């Protein structure tokens, strides 16, 4: 069952007299009890898409659909929605008020939503987040905790509202390597024990491999490849996905992309990746007879179906070969 879905979502911002198409036609579905990784380099639109799914940004077109109904942007409806769809930010230190102890930090959500049994909710959330015994942490302040413990407090603050879905924006990027695995294991355990869904926003394909059921690769405002995580990461079809994977330690050789980082105010014609594409630069696209299409023919927006899909002229030709 689909819990949260983006349907042809488009988000724009004014930038130096031009319009930046931060999200430029995205279809993405997250099922109940499913973890989806949204990956891509900085500036590709991942965080804007996540904020739009949370109702923090309003799309210029398309819609966010939750539980089968389009998102209602009235204050009352958004408050109810955000109890069920909670955000976990990258920097736990910046997320926590240094003047609030752990109890106050975790109790903030239940107080905003007027929930009863506040203390029981706080204790239960801390315990589920792996801070045990929870009573030991109640009067502790953020500066007295390790980075991993602070991130667990942030997660506990979300769990105190009994959400159905977490949107985690780079949830382990600011943590030591020794702690990252613990937080990822916690997210997977919450999925298994509570049926919690999650959208994990990251630039790290290694993280996606370890935690996600499905992966969506985003470039310049649009998803260019999507599918089951094992299939996409073991047999990537899009040259951009191949380049992202090439920087992992076990990769034989990194792919160095040509050209400038993408500018959402100047989206190129044809395939939006073609100015930096290693397949086009190497001549492989010309030998396959698709170099003109790469430069001039736009690709269709990928659907939100659960199967493997890729937006690439060269990949389409290669798949059709015997």
UniProtKB/TrEMBL annotation:
Would the keyword ATP-binding be found if you checked this record's keyword annotation? yes
Domain of life from the UniProt record: Bacteria
- Keyword annotations of the record: ATP-binding, Nucleotide-binding, Transport
Would the keyword Acetylation turn up in this protein's UniProt record? no
Q: Which residues form the ABC transporter domain?
A: 4-245
Annotated Gene Ontology MF terms? ATP binding
Name the family.
Belongs to the ABC transporter superfamily.
The protein in question is named ABC transporter ATP-binding protein
């Amino acid at each position: 069952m689909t819990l949260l879905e983006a349907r042809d979502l488009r988000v724009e911002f004014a930038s130096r007299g031009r319009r930046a198409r931060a999200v430029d036609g995205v279809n993405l579905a997250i099922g109940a009890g499913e973890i989806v990784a949204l990956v891509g380099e900085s500036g590709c639109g991942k965080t804007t898409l996540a904020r739009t799914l949370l109702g923090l940004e309003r799309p210029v077109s398309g819609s966010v659909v939750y539980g089968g109904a389009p998102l209602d942007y009235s204050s009352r409806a958004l408050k109810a929605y955000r109890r069920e769809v909670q955000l976990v930010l990258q920097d736990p230190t910046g997320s926590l008020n240094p003047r609030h102890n752990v109890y106050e930090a975790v109790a903030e959500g239940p107080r905003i939503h007027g929930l009863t049994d506040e203390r029981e909710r706080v204790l239960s959330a801390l315990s589920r987040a792996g801070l045990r015994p929870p009573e030991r942490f109640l009067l502790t302040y953020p500066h007295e905790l390790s980075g991993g413990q602070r991130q667990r407090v942030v997660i506990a603050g979300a769990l105190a509202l009994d959400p159905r879905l977490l949107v985690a924006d780079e949830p382990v990027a600011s943590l030591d390597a020794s702690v990252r695995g613990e937080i990822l294991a916690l997210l997977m355990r919450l999925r298994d024990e509570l049926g919690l869904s999650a959208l994990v926003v990251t630039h790290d394909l290694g993280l996606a491999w370890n935690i996600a059921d499905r992966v969506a690769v985003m470039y310049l405002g649009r998803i260019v490849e999507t599918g089951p995580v094992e299939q996409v990461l073991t047999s990537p079809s899009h040259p951009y996905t191949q380049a992202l994977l090439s920087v992992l330690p076990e990769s034989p050789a990194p792919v160095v992309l040509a050209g400038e980082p993408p500018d959402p105010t100047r989206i190129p014609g044809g395939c939006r990746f073609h100015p930096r594409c290693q397949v086009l630069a190497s001549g492989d696209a010309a030998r396959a007879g698709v170099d003109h299409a790469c430069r001039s023919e736009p690709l269709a927006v990928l659907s939100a179906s659960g199967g493997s899909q890729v937006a690439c002229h060269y990949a389409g030709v290669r798949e059709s070969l015997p």
